[in-house]
Amino acid sequence: MIVKHLEEIVHTKDDIDTKTWNSRRLLLTKDRMGFSLNDTLIKAGTETLIWYKNHVEAVYCIEGEGEIEIVGGETYQISPGMMYALDGHEKHYLRARSQMRMVCVFNPPLTGAEVHDEEGTYPILNPISISE
């Protein structure tokens, strides 16, 4: 059984802080669950271009307001209780009107070292299978 508390992750190597977001990585590849789980803060007044061409992601908003705009497609408003799943590797803009707190699940799981590259992508870093 794996048990972790957010306060154990904050200000550690698993707490990634960037200009537009802060991702506290609760479950990672090393936990061998087959997915990763993040508690992520999207900073108020920011816009981030994201393209998870190597991952699928499900996101559940628990705090704040903003929007997700699919490049070349629709824009959806984000508020507490809203979930979206990027099951088609959609390139998108994430905009926060107020700080948003999001629960994010990735497959394949993140190692913890990922940050968005110039395309907005997370690279695949040393994947570990759950059977290893």
Report on the structure:
With 132 residues, the protein is mainly beta. 3% of the residues lie in helices and 43% in strands. It contains one helix and ten strands, in the order αββββββββββ. The protein has one helix at 6-9; strands at 15-17, 21-27, 36-42, 47-51, 56-63, 66-70, 75-78, 83-86, 91-96, 100-107. Strands 1-2-3-10-5-8 form a six-stranded antiparallel beta sheet, with no helix packed on it. A four-stranded antiparallel beta sheet has the order 4-9-6-7, with no helix packed on it. A hairpin with a 4-residue loop joins β6 and β7 (75-78). It is globular and about 40 Å long. The model has no long low-confidence stretch (mean pLDDT 89).
Outline of the structure:
By secondary structure, the protein is mainly beta. Helices cover 3% and strands 43% of the residues.
